[in-house]
Inverse folding.
């Protein structure tokens, strides 16, 4: 993970936001290569979800909406995380990420240990228990540690569980709900009537426009509305780099279907589709997985939810959620606004509120997963190499043009002409400085899939060498063959 | 204007945000066609400003930055508009948009009139003055009306100038400054230490990352950093549809140059470049113009500023501003952060804080200008037609495929195959229902430049007819010729 963070900073993928002012926790800026890669992720999603499909249309709704939107959606009432404060250190934790256990020897409770959620927390907690036992010079057998989240501690334990910051008990507050929506005021007056929120998800902008889309286009159920955009959550503990940040970007699609049992098939369909999509943009299948949410953990309106997971360096985590949300959202907005959300099905001559399947994925989580999946260190001709094996559609730079030497004017001119031509359609690089091997390495490190060298043979017969980033193998091609190869790899061939 | 607003709603370009809850003043949602057109505007800017140039790189910074960014940039202190309230009607106005004049007859002041800034306000005010004179049954000659903004009223007049809402004097407050930044709080505590703002411009995210970009890329002065993103301004009176909204999207580029007189040439260069760009995406030259900001109206640090204007239905307004900002912003951030913003020029072996030329344009303003420029009503074969003559790069749907009849399976299959092929690369439509003339009209109204008809001759020799939206002329082409024609018009040919 540290290697990826360092590469991202060094090569201009990701910077800490407001870095010169010490940064702002949970916010990130994307540099010259990062912005290209982000755009590629979004464009690939849009292309595959909207442009290339006949049954999905796009939308772009405002970040700030009428506060009643969030009242109807349930976010004002229920979009909160349990929070716990350490009164001494002033540290703040998510109560469901703070774990604790009793340290028990031969049936006696010696005390409690606590720590933050982590892949290796079981082992660490056992060690902490052992330390406590030795400190108290207690003989006997330590019972196996049973970690539970702070949200499941009974109130009499709040004073006994130590703070992870100080290691001492008595400073943690009881857990309390903290709404994750950022609040602001619209207009010059600051009072109840002008409160507004930054959207915590893009989905509600789709639901509120359901009728507008039906009335202004020719969509017929089953159909989807897709949206890409920033969302904001005032996370208590932003962490894991860009994985859980306070400002992030989502790619969400609401797929509207008719009532009845058909939702199960559509849910399955979208789980499969989205899993295949993640593979198609280059995520290693071995790092992907599924997690089915157990029935008892679902929200009351939810019919089912399956996550597509990715094995990040900090653990297996949700990459995308595919939820069967029933008719909850549209019904809530119908009740809240008094406007009908019914759809008239002119095949069956019936009216109903459609059911919804929602595949929702984060741009930033996908970005990080792609970097983790693509990062490799190998050896080329006995030299160590860092390479990002990014899919060509995702790579920030599509191709680099290298004149073999820089002191041969015809060769340089030929290379520049080709570069200018490629630049018309793609983000490409031109590099004439340094040994050719070094130039390859610079491009390997940022995932550029194609290296094109203009050499002396090019001047004779117009052919060029195309170097594959992953195998480092080179082939000699004519210019039309080369352009066709790039188009095909970028899935832009007609 | 009403025609454009109505077309936008009817065909799914633009909806009022939170419409089902009565809307939220100053916020808009973009529907299925609007989101495509917005994306086309942004992609065209990015392609021409970043991808196709060797001297500009991109960036994507967070909307929420450390509050010190806005302290250094001067926004906390100075980013405000003068506001005036009507105590009776509770209406709120921008004081510089509220105009007033004394009504004078033969040297006597009869009273005052007031109204909101408007193209025809001079005539209206003269009429109001005349009405007042007649109401007071006063004889004599009315002096010509001299309108001035409320900000230039002396304090003794605040009680005498009538409110535009009620027509009565005595209810307007003195003007006072109102900061336009939306405020929020980051973290669970709401106090001074957690205040943050939604960015009012994307530019500062570029300045704060100046060193990060220099250190992580190979840029050399002169070079630019470009960014597209949402910005937020808590406008006192959002108006003119999407022209002045509270949430909007900007396309800004900061072009860094060396100190000295060279800035004048670069300023001229960017004014020309940007003017040509607006023409290149289809804005009529006759509707474009320039407005040079007079020296005395420039901010103290500003060297010069020229607007590219557009003649909107509500008047000639700023479309893009090209500002020569000197070294103000980088110097402010150097002072505020204590981090050096100096650039080491290794050609001249000198260090300096670069100067900046900033072309900044709004996506939404460009969107509206394009619609206004493209909207036409004409007659085709004696029938009235509404057509959006959008440039092919901007048009939300690039081409529509029509099978001439829908009851001939081979013809339909041929049309669908072509549609699927085009869909791989572009946003295209397929329409088989209704008379061919009606299908053309539907596409003309949303600006689709190419209509492709698959007819009986297609089955014989593979040729297709390509209909030009503007001339309605048709030519017969082979499929490769057709693809080449579309590519060329979209400026995607290699």
């Amino acid at each position: 993970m540290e290697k990826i963070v360092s590469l991202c900073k060094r090569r201009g993928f990701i910077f800490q936001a407001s870095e010169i002012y010490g940064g702002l926790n949970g916010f990130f800026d994307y540099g010259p290569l990062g912005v290209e890669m982000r755009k590629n992720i979004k464009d690939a999603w849009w292309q595959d979800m909207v442009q290339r499909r006949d049954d999905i249309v796009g939308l772009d709704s405002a970040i700030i909406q009428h506060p009643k939107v969030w009242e109807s959606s349930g976010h004002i009432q229920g979009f909160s995380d349990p929070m716990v404060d350490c009164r001494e250190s002033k540290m703040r934790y998510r109560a469901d990420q703070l774990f604790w256990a009793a340290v028990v020897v031969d049936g006696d409770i010696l005390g409690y240990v606590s720590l933050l959620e982590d892949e290796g927390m079981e082992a660490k907690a056992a060690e902490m228990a052992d330390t406590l036992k030795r400190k108290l010079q207690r003989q006997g057998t330590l019972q196996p540690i049973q970690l539970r989240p702070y949200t499941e501690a009974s109130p009499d334990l709040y004073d006994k569980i130590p703070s992870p910051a100080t290691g001492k008990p008595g400073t943690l507050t009881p857990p309390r709900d903290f709404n994750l929506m950022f609040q602001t005021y619209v207009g010059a007056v600051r009072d109840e009537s002008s409160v507004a929120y930054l959207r915590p998800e893009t989905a509600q902008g789709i639901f509120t426009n359901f009728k507008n889309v039906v009335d202004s286009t020719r969509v017929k159920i089953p159909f989807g509305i897709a949206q890409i955009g920033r969302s904001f959550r005032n996370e208590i503990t932003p962490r894991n780099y860009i994985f859980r940040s306070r400002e992030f970007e989502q790619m969400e699609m609401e797929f509207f279907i008719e009532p009845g049992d058909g939702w199960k098939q559509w849910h399955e369909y979208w789980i499969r589709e989205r899993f295949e999509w993640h593979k198609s943009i280059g995520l290693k299948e071995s790092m992907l997985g599924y997690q089915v949410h157990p029935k008892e953990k679902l929200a009351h309106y939810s019919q089912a939810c399956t996550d597509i997971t990715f094995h990040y360096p900090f653990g297996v985590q949700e990459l995308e959620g595919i939820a069967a949300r029933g008719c909850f959202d549209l019904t809530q907005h119908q009740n809240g606004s008094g406007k009908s959300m019914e759809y008239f099905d002119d095949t069956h001559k019936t009216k109903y509120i459609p059911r919804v399947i929602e595949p929702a994925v984060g741009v930033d989580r996908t970005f990080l997963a792609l970097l983790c999946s693509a990062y490799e260190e190998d050896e080329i001709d006995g030299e160590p190499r860092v390479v990002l094996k990014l899919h060509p559609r995702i790579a920030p730079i599509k191709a680099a043009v290298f004149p073999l030497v820089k002191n041969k004017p015809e060769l340089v001119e030929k290379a520049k002409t080709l570069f200018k031509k490629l630049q018309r359609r793609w983000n490409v690089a031109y590099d004439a400085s340094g040994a050719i091997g070094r130039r390859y390495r610079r491009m390997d490190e940022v995932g550029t899939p194609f290296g094109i060298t203009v050499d002396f043979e090019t001047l004779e017969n117009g052919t060029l060498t195309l170097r594959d980033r992953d195998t480092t193998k080179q082939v000699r091609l004519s210019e039309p063959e080369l352009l066709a190869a790039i188009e095909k790899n970028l899935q832009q061939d007609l």
